[in-house]
Design a protein that fits this description.
about 375 residues; mainly beta; 6-stranded antiparallel sheet; 5-stranded mixed sheet; 25 strands
């Protein structure tokens, strides 16, 4: 967890996930899904940095594409700065990068992957900027040098145009070292991120994806923390101030929390924990209120209650939000095949689960009937 993260009161979900509001670092959007390789929904680690962050820029215990743990650490050594541009040309991977060629850091720089398990890997290295075609990086791995020949606009992932691949490489003493240099005729060299794809060994079939981000600004956010203390995701709405007060989470993995933007503006947010990320559901602006810890609560029937903080001389207002129809397992507003399949796949499971529609602690025939009786609602 970054040293400048300020987390407030927390709540624990049914699977042990800790949810906390507070003020967090908000980088540009983090990549998800496939780049030159990968699948929709793939998890990406974010290595966010700036000139204000002590070098080297590091991230430990990288997660694989399926959010499973790996022992791999990464260090970006002797990079100058990070930068970002609007995604008018490229995607969330290509829009921001770390680079050399400024502040006295003119290369070579090093990207070091350490604690890499024995085995063979394909290594994808990305270099693209939407503002120029003369900032491509020169990469060297195991004595082999490769250079991208960039072009604009971005029309998709093209080998040797916006990325290079080193195939069937193996770590040496647990390390893979990537040298980054500036091309002879260029002023800068940018690197957007990398993918390490396991071919053999304990990480065979795993993709370890790292997006190189700019550090960003400080704003409000909700952090989901695994029981082992590592961050699973952060929800950081644009323009947020600070998520104060106690959040509340349901067995349906829907989280409610309040964002205090300024003295007069507070929003109640509803987001759903999707595993590797949070999905925004809706927000509601509460009336004028003083700074305070606005804490929502959920009743036994799913009704959501919230009262904004007000001066003691002002009238107080309690809001009650009706629960979603029983059986909307994935909280998409429509009870359909996806919800029915979710109950069938979890049939017989017990605990605090979204598939336990009636909340009796077990997924059984009664939950299946609830979905069937409400089938088609909201669609």
């Amino acid at each position: 967890m970054a040293a400048n993260e300020e987390l407030n009161l927390a709540v624990i979900g049914g699977d042990g996930t800790i949810y906390s509001g507070g003020r967090v670092t908000i980088p540009p959007p983090i990549m998800s899904g496939p780049a030159a390789t990968g699948q929709p929904g793939d998890f990406w680690n974010s290595l966010a940095a700036s000139d204000q962050v002590p070098r080297p820029w590091t991230l430990e215990n990288l997660r694989a594409h399926d959010d499973s743990a790996t022992p791999i650490d990464i260090a970006n050594i002797d990079f100058a700065e990070s930068s970002t541009y609007p995604p008018s040309d490229g995607d969330d991977l290509m829009r921001d990068y770390h680079y050399i060629g400024a502040l006295g850091y003119n290369g070579p720089a090093t990207i070091r992957l350490s604690q890499v398990p024995d085995g063979t890997y394909d290594l994808y290295l990305y270099s693209f900027t939407p503002i120029a075609t003369d900032q491509n990086a020169v990469f060297t791995v195991n004595g082999v040098t490769k250079t991208v020949t960039p072009s604009r606009p971005f029309t998709g992932y093209q080998e040797d145009v916006n990325y290079v691949v080193y195939r069937n490489i193996s770590p040496t003493n647990g390390e893979i070292n990537i040298t980054v240099e500036i091309d002879l005729f260029n002023q800068y060299a940018v690197v957007n991120g990398l993918q390490l794809v396991g071919l053999t060994g304990s990480l065979a079939g795993k993709r370890v994806n790292v997006d190189f981000n700019q550090l960003g600004t400080i704003g409000g956010g909700i952090t989901a923390i695994r029981p082992d203390g590592t961050i699973r995701w952060q929800f950081k709405p644009e323009g947020s101030g600070e998520f104060s007060g106690w959040p509340v989470v349901t067995c349906g993995r829907v989280l409610y929390a309040c964002d205090q933007v300024d003295f007069a503006t507070t929003y109640l947010y509803a987001v759903r924990d999707e595993g590797n990320n949070a999905r925004f559901l809706w927000r509601f602006q509460l009336p004028y209120n003083y700074f305070g810890n606005n804490s929502p609560s959920v009743g036994p029937d799913g009704t959501l209650y919230i009262a904004p903080s007000r001066d003691s001389a002002d009238a107080q207002t309690l809001y009650a939000f009706a629960p979603a129809p029983a059986g909307d397992i994935n909280a998409d507003g429509c009870i359909d095949d996806a919800d029915l399949l979710a109950v069938l796949f979890s049939f017989g499971a017990s605990g605090c689960l979204p598939e336990d529609v009636n909340g009796d602690g077990v997924v059984d025939d009664a939950d299946l009937l609830e979905v069937l009786f409400n089938f088609g609602t909201g669609c």
